[in-house]
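Q: My collaborator sent me two sequences in one message, no labels, and asked for predicted structures for both. Can we handle them in order? The first one she listed is below.
A: Yes, handling them in the order given. First sequence, followed by its structure tokens:
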Amino acid sequence: MNYSLANINGVNIFFRECGDKSKPVFLLLHGFPSSSHMFRNLMPLLEDKFHVIAPDYVGFGQSGAPGVDVFEYTFDHLADYVEALLQALGIEKYYMYVFDYGAPIGFRLAVRKPESILGIVSQNGNIYEKGLGERWTTRKIYWENPTAELRLFLQSTYAPETIIREYMAGEPLGNISPDGYSLDIYYTYREGYADRQDSLILDYRTNVAKYPEFQAYIKEYQPKLLAVWGKNDESFTVEGAQAYAENDKNAEVVLLDAGHFALETQYKRIAEEILKRFG
């Protein structure tokens, strides 16, 4: 495993990398509030067949985190930096694994350059309104009327107890290692974290607005797609996984007895499904 920094438009982007560079690229796009660390167990299982790359977005993990006064924290902008990283690394075609925040970022890239996408793994990476769980109700109210009170309330999204619950929900007691959520909690103490995440929570409304565009891409290009889903996820429900198969004849849906962070406990099974589908 290699750990590198690439300077993209003045911001250092951290990324993990493994596998032979002559092999097809597999781009792994993490979610919230995690980082490329979430792929620590999966990457070694894919490196024999792929050149695997997992970046941290601007403001996440080990990447640079400029202040909101000098950097626009939107999903469009985060996608710009992932795209620029791929260009800097000379990567023109790739498979992508999208999870949580990785879905709206990855599908932006797919819509921009559909010819670049070799295949897609969506692990609890939602692009359908029917896949939004009940907890999104308050966020939708906030998007329509972003009051200071609701902004403060939604900061509980990245409180330590919320992060731990997000990892633990839907999993048997004792299944989840504390490594992932402990690191995520550590990053919440970085300077300016609240401002960055508050901006993205509000901007998430643009992702839902783009769902029809992402779905149109799926319907037109029919990419080879694996929706592998923690079926006990309270954020993104199984309806979001099943919707892929409704729009894409080349989609396969695999439901796992796991929660939102299914990769924490199911990484071997997920690797098996990826290699069976794309290897």
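Q: And the one she listed second?
A: Here it is, processed independently of the first:
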Amino acid sequence: MEKKLLITVSDEISHLHGVRFVGSFFRNKAAVSATLFYVAPHASIAGTDRPRPVELDRKAAETCRAKAQHALDASRQILCDSGFAPQNVNTKFILRQFGTVKDIIREAKSGQYDAVILGRRGYMIFESALATSVTRQILDMEIGFPLWVCRRPEENRRNVLLCLDGSEASLRMVDHAGFILKDENEHAITLLHVDTGEGQNTEAIMREARKTLLDNWVSDGRVTSLVVARGITEVAKTILEETQAKGYAAVGVGRAGMKKGLLKEWLLGSRTMKLVESIEKAALWVSR
């Protein structure tokens, strides 16, 4: 089954981290369909909300569209240069309708994408949108798809670290990773469980996660299990240490629930809130 990815694009050409990550990460690019998505501000908000002459709005819209097209063309070229077939790379430009975050969510849901990829600017926009508890509650109900946060991933890294905490969210993340990785044989998978001494059944957690990968046709030889005994306050630190030591391309986590604060808490919960702001050379995959 083809993997459908929605990659958010901004006009920061030097910071197209999400685009570059996708181009570098996948070897079997024929099995991936990528849509490059640019949400532009409406021409009326470029300078003022007050009515303006039609020709000024038209000029602003043309300038905005030109910037968007330049960014989309550059992103498309990056993917094609990395080996994507042109027919597997689509571009889409819209003027902002309901707010950038909501427009991304609407596109992700209507297009039934398997993941939404956020570069540095996309991450910042999401974080800003989640600054209020009301907005977080609304978006928590709407975002049912995995997010890949690509702040500054290092290209050409291999392998994926999947972090397990026994929650349904982390198991859904494993299922997502299995679907993405089933025909990406160059990526080995490490299942990591940080045993905090809270009485969880570590063997059952690992067994269920491994079965989920096998059900996605990931060969057992690609999967390694790692259990580390650490204190409850050292979960994030342990994940970061493992990521840095092994140089993984991506780290997968399940979003345990909303906490007060910005995106880092909303995505991950209090135990691993440091991951989004600390992981730079690897992409962070987050599943609800």
